[in-house]
Amino acid sequence: MANTTTIYQVFTALVNAIQEKTDETNIYLMNRPDIADDNAKSFVVVDLPLQIYRNLVGTGDSLATTQGRITLFVKSRTDGTPNINAITQKMDALVKLFPLDTDIAAFTNARETMGGKDDYGYQYMIIRFKIRIK
Question: Does residue 71 carry a pLDDT above 90?
Fold first, then answer.
């Protein structure tokens, strides 16, 4: 059954995959940082919901499932318009992570969701996905 150690391992597996397979270096867990004074051109927030479902398989085995979310933030152009090329390139790299199978969990069914603009001059998009904890 999943516990806090397992959740930490799920976060670690996702962060490692993002670091290894994309050019994103600014990765945060759970919360969007207040970076109004930062000049980062982009960053990613990896978030997991608080609900973990225990699914019975057969007569006694179980597995845990949950969902995850990766939010990509890309700095708007100086005139405030979205940087479509950067958003597209970075989203493509993140979506290509899926399906991801690690020793701790399988990450599948990635779905892109349109985001919007935040109060700090970033455009954002969201990837939602399923997680099966092994």
Answer: yes
